[in-house]
Specification:
Elements lengths: L3 E7 L7 H12 L3 E7 L6 H7 L4 E4 L4 H7 L2 E2 L1 H6 L4 E5 L2 E5 L2 H8 L8 E5 L3 H12 L3 E6 L6 H5 L3 E4 L10 E4 L14 H10 L2 E4 L7 H8 L4 E2 L2 H15 L6 H9 L5
Parallel strand pairs: 1-2, 1-3, 4-6, 7-8, 7-10, 8-9, 10-11, 11-12
Antiparallel strand pairs: 3-5, 5-6
Helix pairs in contact: 1-10, 1-11, 5-6, 5-10, 10-11
The structure holds NADPH dihydro-nicotinamide-adenine-dinucleotide phosphate.
Length: 265
């Protein structure tokens, strides 16, 4: 019998750690699966591509999480609420959609036990799902974004929102870079005069970018703040996706040591 096939769809996708994370876990747990990457250029072809490739499950990364949402026959309630899907599993010919980014992020910040108030730098797709789960978990989330456009939906949902021009710095327990600033350039997610007020007042600073020390985390370290990059978020979203892929045959704790190896290779 052939292996059960999985993939990550994205554009670009060549940098993704997901194939390594999932293949190490299949191997370690003795699950007969194989996970590859697929450069999907046109998000509208996601569903057809999924079935053409005879896949059992996929992860979806930038820029196709909304297309993935639209491709699903059945949505998990949280994915439905936030309008973004990063994990799809096929069951009896139907596509089931989940969002594992947000619970992965929630778990990643759980080590900061005292934190209650959070400042998000950025208001894009990742901020959308993570702000929602944080609010459900009783964090108070404020969003600060470069431009006003993306803030509209957050404002409608009752979040406190600011642009750089309207922001009056206050103390927040966690300051989190939710932007792509620093991913492929050396830019900060907000003007230095704002960061130089919110970072010293924070208990910790977090970046969702992984695999490099961003200018934001460098600045936070220069103030002696505890910092954390996006690696744990990536790991935990992957473990939760793996649970869905394998029909919850394995617990989070069983999967974790295998998937973690992808971060030390
Ligand atoms: P989006 O494209 O949806 O949103 C981008 C956001 O970044 C917007 O708020 C945008 O502001 C802001 N932005 C971009 N460049 C700058 C800049 N130079 N200065 C200030 N603000 C800027 O991106 P996503 O939400 O999909 O992704 C955000 C980050 O999250 C990426 O770096 C991605 O790699 C990371 N990520 C990490 C994951 C993990 O597992 N660790 C999982 C998913 C994402 P504006 O509205 O003004 O344009």
């Amino acid at each position: 019998m052939s292996k059960t096939l999985f993939a990550i769809f994205g554009n670009p996708v060549s940098h993704s750690k997901s194939p390594l994370m999932h293949n190490l876990s299949f191997q370690g747990l003795g699950f007969d699966g194989c996970y590859t990457r697929y450069l999907l250029e046109d998000g509208a072809t996601l569903k057809k591509t999924f079935f053409d490739l005879q896949l059992k499950g996929i992860n979806i990364t930038v820029p196709h999480k909304e297309h993935a949402y639209n491709a699903c026959d059945v949505l998990d309630p949280f994915a439905q609420k936030v309008g973004a899907v990063n994990t799809i599993v096929e069951k009896e010919g139907k596509l089931y959609g989940y969002n594992t980014d947000a619970p992965g992020f929630l778990k990643a910040i759980s080590e900061f036990k005292e934190a209650k108030t959070v400042l998000f730098l950025g208001a894009g797709g990742t901020a959308q799902s993570t702000s929602s789960i944080l609010r459900d978990a009783s964090y108070e989330v404020t969003l600060l974004n470069r431009t006003p456009g993306r803030l509209k939906r957050y404002k409608k949902e009752g979040f406190e929102t600011y642009t750089f021009e309207t922001f009056t710095p206050k103390a927040y327990d966690l300051v989190i870079n939710m932007t792509s600033a620093g991913l492929e350039d050396d830019s900060l997610p907000a003007p230095p005069e704002i960061l130089e007020q919110v970072i010293p007042a924070a208990k910790a600073c977090i970046d969702v970018i992984y695999g490099k020390e961003t200018p934001f985390l460098k600045l936070a370290k220069s103030y002696g703040k505890p910092t954390k990059d996006g690696s744990d978020m990536l790991l935990y979203q992957g473990i939760i996706a793996f649970e869905h892929f394998t029909g919850h045959q394995y617990t989070f704790e069983e999967i974790e040591p295998h998937m973690k190896k992808a971060f030390i290779l």
